[in-house]
Amino acid sequence: MSSPPASTNRKFIWLAAASVIGFVALIAAWFLLPVDQWLQGFSRWAQGMGALGVVVVSIAYVICTVLLVPGVPLTLAVAVAYGWWALAICFLGGMTAALISFLISRYLARKRVKRFLDRHPAMKAVDTVAHEETFKTIVLARLTPVTPFAVENYAFGVTGVRLGSFLLATAIGIVPGTVQNVWIGVIGRTAAEGSASLINWVLLTVGLVATIVLTVWMTRQAKIRMKQQAEPAFQGS
């Protein structure tokens, strides 16, 4: 296999740098801002509403995702409020939002989404290979954090992807990221409650560092594989 071009390597260097900067900013915010108080307040509010709180948070999660709000902070917030139960809330919420966005794109905003794809080559490449390797393309796209989950939902709606394949591949592709973000949120919740031990802080740090490493690695691998899929598609066109 040929090595990736220099431009691709530069992109991943920038991605790694941005991830490190984000990590440092997050740590600085934790100590400089009353983040623990905000998290505790949100957790008390959500849990104080009981079952209604779960419904409200779930609906808000779906609406925010449909409106293209980044998924990572949403997942972390839900994990802070509900702990490991956030896995179910975020998974079902993400799947519901994916379905709604897909249908909006396919039947209500098709022309507008197509214009968006034409202005973004990376998403246009996804459109090209989706016809040949539908399932694999969607899973790889879900494992590529650089391409926003919410944007992908709309982008796949204007391709020839079948709804069943879209939902199944999405269900598989979002599991690793959801588990990872919920795990970090749960540890952050423990820290916010003031009951975090040294091991909790170590795990939180390890989790954040692992997130950076996995983000860069998965993005690189997914992009390489999608490029390999795109080459035969372009040659055959």
Automatic annotation (TrEMBL):
It is a multi-pass membrane protein. The keyword Membrane applies. Keywords: Cell membrane, Membrane, Transmembrane, Transmembrane helix. Signal peptide: none annotated. The keyword Cytoplasm does not apply. The chain crosses the membrane at residues 12-33, 45-70, 82-109, 166-186, 198-218. InterPro entries: TMEM64 (IPR015414), VTT_dom (IPR032816). It is found in: Cell membrane. Residues 69-185 form the VTT domain. GO terms for cellular component: plasma membrane. Pfam families: VTT_dom. It comes from the Bacteria. Belongs to the TVP38/TMEM64 family. This is TVP38/TMEM64 family membrane protein. It comes from Microvirga lupini.
